[in-house]
Design brief:
- By secondary structure, the protein is α/β, with parallel strands linked by helices.
- It folds into two domains: 150 residues, Response regulator (Rossmann fold, 3-Layer(aba) Sandwich); 138 residues, 3-Layer(aba) Sandwich (Rossmann fold).
- Helix content is 46%, strand content 18%.
- The protein is built from 13 helices and 13 strands.
- The strands form two sheets. It has a seven-stranded mixed β-sheet, sandwiched between helices. A six-stranded mixed β-sheet has the order 7-6-8-9-10-12, sandwiched between helices.
- Helix 6 links the parallel strand 6 and strand 7.
- Helix 2 runs parallel beside helix 10 and helix 3 runs parallel beside helix 4.
């Protein structure tokens, strides 16, 4: 039989083990809570112009001088971002890597987890499903790293275009053409991205402009899935079954190029059609340069140029410098007259970045943030159009 002393000893050991487990659990939970970090700026805020002479602060400790691009898909627009980022990383001595997630938001979230675990100092993330990747981006921010995004928050540097102005620039070109060539009457297809709230203003601008023309009929207003050349091709094939005579197609370059492919395959393309897109993708530029085909306009968002700028600011962040919180990608309407200079700028975005006059034609920067003030990261859908 056990003595009373032995019983008390065993009870004491059990109690101690329980206390140690409880302490370990409390420590673990405290650590998890500590990782939560600041929520960032969640209320809509109008940032002042970026101050390039703002005081420097501390470089983030314990992070590698490495920049990773978690790329949504292989659209030419995003390939342009990759080109700019890789050039900036090379120029600033950053290790550079790219991971294509093929429109898989869960895969993107996992890649962000791996980026943080590797202690990479900077990441650029794009995804069509902002909600799925937002926590992963936030975790990277809380680690002290630079995070850049194209439109959706959260980010230490959020890049966006004035979306309504971008849509209006393309619509104005289309309206002028409809009035001049079709006497104000046209059958129009809108290939939208309304499923992504950050882009919806550009398509509202298209509707607002076209609604002013009584002779215009919007025969289709639809969001291809995925937003790619393949998605545009499939969607346009379906539209042509009910509406074989199309005069105007508007949308992102990728999907409009797919629509052009479908029109050609069906023998429904005409030289007098107006196909116009947004993004200034190389294939769209090539079509415009032909001068005799349906593709008439593209609104440039110069992805290699802003990609290069983001890469430069990532390197600045890792050196403890102050960088912008937000950056406008200014829309530029491409014409046959300015395409040559535009193409040169895409090939050599560094030359644009270091020439203030050329850079300011493409980009406008707002706010200031650095490692020491990283709790002020952007965590709302920023746009310069919303005050």
């Amino acid at each position: 039989m056990r003595s009373a002393a032995e019983g008390r000893g065993r009870r004491w050991q059990t109690a101690c083990r329980g206390l140690l487990v409880a302490m370990a659990l409390a420590t673990c939970l405290a650590g998890a809570n500590a990782q939560q970090g600041a929520p960032g700026i969640t209320q809509r805020t109008a940032f002042p112009p970026f101050d390039p002479n703002a005081p420097a602060c501390s470089p983030p400790p314990g992070l590698r001088k490495a920049l990773t691009f978690v790329q949504e898909n292989q659209r030419e627009f995003l390939q342009g971002v990759d080109h700019g980022l890789s050039q900036a990383a090379k120029d600033r001595g950053l290790e550079y890597s790219k991971v294509e997630v093929e429109n898989d938001a869960a895969k993107a979230a996992e890649q962000l987890r791996l980026v943080r675990a590797s202690k990479a100092g900077a990441v650029i993330g794009t995804s069509s499903d902002a909600a799925t990747v937002s926590r992963g981006l936030q975790d990277v921010i809380w680690s002290g790293a630079f995070v850049g995004t194209v439109m959706p928050p959260p980010a230490t540097l959020l890049v966006n275009a004035p979306q309504y102005a971008t849509g209006k620039a393309l619509t104005d070109s289309a309206i002028a053409y409809i009035n001049a060539k079709f006497g104000g009457k046209a059958s129009v297809v809108l290939l939208t991205q309304d499923t992504m709230q950050y882009l919806s203003p550009r398509f509202q601008a298209m509707r607002d402009g076209l609604d002013k023309l009584p002779g215009v009929t919007i025969v289709a207003d639809i969001a291809p899935n995925p937003v790619s050349k393949e998605g545009g091709f499939a969607t346009m094939n379906t539209i042509l079954l009910a509406n074989p005579n199309i005069d105007v197609v508007l949308g992102a370059d990728a999907v409009v190029l797919g629509a052009l492919k479908a029109l050609r395959a069906a023998g429904r393309d005409r030289p007098d059609q107006f196909l116009g897109g947004i993004d200034g993708e190389p294939e769209a530029v090539s079509e415009i340069k032909k001068g005799s085909g349906p593709y008439k306009a593209s609104i440039s968002l110069a992805s290699p140029v802003f990609g290069y700028a983001m890469g430069q600011f990532a390197a600045d962040w890792l050196e403890g410098k102050s960088i912008p919180q937000a950056m406008d990608i200014l829309p530029v309407a491409l014409t046959r007259q300015n395409i040559a200079q535009y193409e040169a700028d895409l090939v050599n975005p560094a030359a644009v970045y270091f020439d203030p006059a050329r850079r300011n034609a493409y980009l406008k920067m707002y706010g200031n943030i650095c490692y020491d003030t990283r709790d002020r990261y952007v965590n709302f859908p920023w746009s310069s159009e919303q005050k």
